[in-house]
Write a structure and sequence with these properties.
This protein folds into 4 domains: about 5-60, no CATH class; about 95-240, no CATH class; about 255-450, 3-Layer(aba) Sandwich (Rossmann fold); about 475-570, no CATH class. The chain is about 45% helix and about 15% strand. β9 and β10 (about 255-260) form a beta hairpin. It is an alpha/beta fold.
């Protein structure tokens, strides 16, 4: 059935009106209408002819004129778009400069962090929300965000994630902002990369690229902007130390933590040894030293060996040195079963120019010369004469884990091979330095050895002062329950602590520290043990002094029994 017949059947009045309109039209209009009707028939659209007349009746104009106007506007928009794209290409090519930043580079991290603080970008209509607090970054906790448990006596962190605002970054697309009176354009695009097969698997990786452009034939303004974002990043983290470990693929480094830098005064070590280490590292990091080494054909490398009993501050000193000199720490575990010697060399090659490479407990890494057979003791009855690294190798062999392992020659090649990295500081820590191979600690690989011992009485007094001199001793930071929910026992403890910490002057604190040091046996307690005892009384220096005798007696009896468990009363 034709549309015209249906139209005449359903809407007879409207059809008759249209017929009268056609009948009363002038001769030119009728001829024009016939021409249009003929064109519609040829195009196979004869059924829409009634609608054509209907539109003309409603609008009071010839529909063909409307179609012509729409066609002209469409064609004009195409021409203008082509002209705009042409002029835009000419301006971009000859009158603008651009710099591309990859998301895999740290410069992208600096830029996004800076853009988050810009009002223009914060008010953009196209943003990408991300968590503000990451696992790697140390963020100061806001007391106003803390909640309380049902009793009101203890703090509760369950509401913290709901109160912290996310960070908003530019979404994929085009953005613009102003900085120092100059207009900048930012384009963020995302692409998927197909990586080469690794361990039998191919991986698709999403990579974001940011392109910054500005007017002018020189990219110097953009370079200045990127330098500014980098300065702002490090200025905000001037008192932090970045800790990095190998990534999942062992071919690059990833940041695992950003922590507050540790003050060198908090490390308990002989003053002469501490000063020697600081002076040596300061000279090594000086720019003139690099030129001096190069002029004499000597590789710019430095190695330290920190050795001593556990808990004496070997790792703490490495962390404090990083804070003093503003260096990052790169930690490598040689006990990682999947780490190969080729990957180890790649990790050393990816190190920044100035950094600290930390190899902890090198004596337990199971390093063997290539020609040495690996001993395999009975796991149920190991031979106590075997060194520690042999037990580690035997444990790895019996655990069912296929370990590729790092040989001694592989480690030495990564440290100071022909193509190895220069400019970093290598720190080895060991509890049993006598078990280390002489080739590993020879001069040129280990240039300075620092011996750590258990705390002396003077060092114990220094720990006491370090624990209490920088903190507010007015009241315990964790004891602030509401009056309605506070128990009598809690109030008594708080009152006792206040009485113990009242009127602590520097002279009084020094006297308390001297008395505390006199109660600690010479060379019997590690700094970690003393610090752990003081931490349990971190707001009560007088209480720490009064209970020191009982704690020392309990620990000494524990050592006599060769027990690893200390009674709760002696903590």
């Amino acid at each position: 059935m034709e549309y015209e017949n249906v139209f005449h059947t359903i809407l007879p009045s409207m059809s008759s009106k249209m017929s009268r309109m056609v009948g009363s039209c002038s001769k030119p209009d009728c001829e024009h209408h016939k021409i249009v009707e003929s064109i519609l028939k040829l195009a196979g659209l004869r059924g829409i002819d009634p609608f054509y007349g209907l539109i003309g009746g409603w609008l009071g104009i010839e529909p063909s004129h409307l179609l012509i106007a729409i066609g002209v506007i469409w064609a004009l928009s195409k021409v203008l778009r082509q002209l705009y794209n042409f002029l835009r290409g000419v301006v971009t090519e000859h009158f603008m400069s651009s710099v591309q930043v990859s998301s895999r580079d740290t410069a992208c991290r600096y830029l996004l962090d800076w853009l988050d603080s810009q009002p223009t970008m914060a008010n953009s209509r196209h943003l990408k929300a991300e968590r503000m607090i990451t696992k790697t970054e140390w963020i100061e906790d806001d007391k106003s965000l803390l909640g309380r448990d049902r009793s009101g006596r203890y703090i509760n962190y369950s509401s913290i994630p709901t109160r912290i605002k996310p960070r908003y970054d530019p979404a994929v697309g085009k953005h613009s902002f102003w900085w120092q009176g100059r207009y900048y354009r930012l384009r963020r695009k995302q692409k998927t990369l197909f990586t080469e097969p690794s361990q039998g698997q191919s991986v698709f990786l999403n990579q974001d690229d940011i392109i910054i452009s500005c007017f002018g034939r020189s990219p110097e303004p953009i370079k200045h902007l990127l330098a500014h974002t980098r300065e702002q990043w490090f200025a905000a983290r001037q008192n932090t130390t970045t800790i990095q470990r190998p990534s999942h693929k062992k071919s690059s480094w990833k940041t695992v933590a950003d922590r507050h830098a540790r003050d060198i005064s908090t490390v308990i070590l002989d003053a002469a040894q501490k000063q020697r280490v600081l002076a040596d590292l300061n000279e090594y990091l000086h720019p003139d030293t690099a030129r001096w080494y190069a002029s004499r054909g000597i590789f710019l490398r430095r190695g330290y060996l920190f050795h001593g009993p556990p808990g004496t501050g070997k790792t703490s000193l490495a962390f404090a040195l990083a804070g003093v000199f503003g260096l990052g720490i790169h930690i490598i575990s040689l006990l990682e079963p999947s780490l190969t010697e080729e990957e180890l060399c790649t990790l050393f090659a990816e190190l920044p120019r100035r950094c600290i490479v930390l190899l902890e407990d090198i004596d337990t890494a199971g390093l063997q010369r290539a020609e040495d057979p690996t001993p395999t003791p009975n796991p149920n009855n190991p031979d106590p004469s075997l060194p520690t690294h042999a037990h580690a190798a035997a444990a790895a062999a019996t655990s069912g884990v296929q370990r590729t392992g790092i040989s001694l020659s592989g480690l030495l090649n990564a440290i100071d091979g022909v193509g190895s990295h220069e400019g970093h500081l290598l720190i080895l820590t060991s509890n049993s330095p006598e078990q280390l191979d002489s080739a590993l600690i020879r001069p040129g690989r280990v240039d300075l050895q620092v011996s750590f011992t258990n705390a002396t009485r003077i060092q114990a007094a220094g720990l006491f002062v370090s624990m209490y001199q920088h903190s507010s001793l007015s009241s315990p930071p964790y004891s602030s329950p509401s009056p309605a929910t506070s128990s009598a026992s809690c109030s008594e403890v708080e009152a006792t602590n206040k009485s113990l910490t009242a009127t602590i002057t520097p002279d009084t604190l020094s006297a308390l520290a001297e008395a505390f040091g006199a109660k600690i046996p010479e060379g019997q307690f590690s700094p970690a043990q003393i610090q752990g005892y003081l931490l349990n009384r971190k707001t009560a220096p007088r209480q720490a002094l009064e209970e020191a005798d009982a704690w020392v007696d309990g620990v000494m009896r524990q050592k006599e029994r060769n027990s690893k468990v200390l009674g709760l009363d002696f903590f």
